[in-house]
Specification:
Elements lengths: L1 H43 L2 H9 L9 H14 L6 E8 L4 E4 L13 H7 L6 E2 L3 E3 L4 E11 L6 E10 L1 H7 L10 H6 L2
Antiparallel strand pairs: 1-2, 1-6, 3-5, 4-5, 5-6
Helix pairs in contact: 2-3
């Protein structure tokens, strides 16, 4: 009877601990998502990007100084802020990529991408796309988009898309800091 009682008590304790660990991991993922959403909104409100986006014309995108300037700005001043960002792209109002850290994607039409649709058609202030395979990167990624508001008229002038490596979520959930030791083999080695 003592054995059964102790076993049940230990199982309840372990179950409670596992639930607490699950809740902690969920809170970490939520905090991470909030952080990268804020970063995407912040990047989209960058005054330099907003000014240059107003100058860009549709014809001969790759030859324009403003396209090169924004792409360089994204590479030198934005993507370096977060090692988990795989790429940053700027779309114009029509959904065409006008600047990017990936040169080969400039000029591509993203108007059918969910990141574009949710901002332009639905009017979201930030959109987080579920992790998916991103063709132009060749990896699974988590993409976030936010509007770029024109300084001239206050309307949506374009969209910024931050593509994060999908491993970012795994890195966050696999971080065991503050969780103690839940591995049975490690506990038994202590005795």
């Amino acid at each position: 009877i003592f054995y059964l009682s102790a076993r049940k008590s230990l199982e309840q304790h372990i179950d409670q601990k596992m639930v607490a660990i699950g809740e902690l991991k969920a809170l970490r993922v939520k905090a991470l998502l909030n952080s990268i959403e804020d970063r995407t909104i912040e990047f989209g409100s960058d005054e330099y990007i907003r000014n240059k986006l107003n100058i860009i014309r549709q014809e001969a995108l790759l030859e324009q100084d403003s396209v090169n300037a924004i792409s360089k700005h994204l590479k030198n001043n934005k993507i370096t802020l977060d090692p988990d960002i795989a790429a940053i792209s700027i779309l114009n109002k029509a959904g065409v990529v006008v600047a990017s850290t990936i040169k080969s994607v400039i000029g591509s039409d993203f108007s059918d991408h969910e990141e574009y649709i949710q901002i332009t058609d639905i009017g979201m202030t930030v959109f987080t796309h579920r992790p998916h395979f991103t063709e132009y990167l060749g990896i699974n990624s988590l993409e976030l988009s936010a509007p770029i508001i024109s300084m001239k008229n206050g309307e949506v002038a374009g969209i910024i898309i931050n593509a994060y490596n999908e491993g970012l979520i795994d890195k966050t959930t696999n971080n065991r800091k503050g969780m103690g030791n839940s591995d049975r083999s490690e506990r038994w080695r202590q005795y």
